[in-house]
Amino acid sequence: MSLLIVENGTVVENANSYIDIDFADAYLDLTDKEDWNNYNTTQKEKAIIEATQAIDLSYVFSGEVVNTEQTLEFPRKNCYDKQRDVFLPTSIIPVVLKNAVAELAYLRLTSGESLIVAVDSEVLKKEKIGNIEIERFDKTKITENEKFKKVTSMIERYTKQISKAIFSERG
After folding, report:
1. Which residues face 125 on adjacent strands?
2. CA pair distance 7, 22, nearest whole angstrom
3. Mean pLDDT of all residues in 21-39
4. Which of 33, 55, 76, 101 has a CA between 20 and 30 Å from the CA of residue 8?
5. CA–CA gap between residue 73 and residue 17 (Å, rounded)
6. pLDDT band for position 57 (50/70/90)?
7. How far is the C-alpha of 24 from the C-alpha of 103, rounded, in Å?
8. Contact indicator for 134, 127 with CB cutoff of 8 Å
9. What was the pLDDT predicted at 30?
10. Please, which residues have CB within 8 angstroms of residue 170's CB and are 6 or more apart in sequence?
11. Residue 92: which residues within 8 A CB-CB, separation 6 or more?
12. How many C-beta atoms surround the C-beta of residue 116 within 10 A?
């Protein structure tokens, strides 16, 4: 039985992935990442789940989730594609996002390193004090995301504009 519960844009209950193995196999074959074929189905599925989680935990997407009970960040309503200057249809999982999951799953398996690093604070923490809203970033996770440069370049088109004033915690 598959570990993957794939979100297809209809808010699938308990979804844990944006792609299935067939999608990852096809994408990674097209991008000449033959090492992917050295891993078994369970290893691939676990890597896909971790890649999906890493993306959802590491990026703040524009718009809002379709249903507050959904387990993943997509599908989204009012999600703006900055590259194409359009709002995405609510019921889709962007192909670029799916490709990014495949890239990270491949990175997870071939590097042997975890994609998700446990730290004390969140990637993005918003605090509102009166009329002032402050966004703080945890530097440990941001540095960790440097591994994800290709993925970031793929999906940043769907992310919120990052504030020019970033406040960091001093320890």
Report:
1. 136
2. 14
3. 97
4. 33
5. 10
6. confident
7. 8
8. yes
9. 97
10. none
11. 9, 75
12. 14
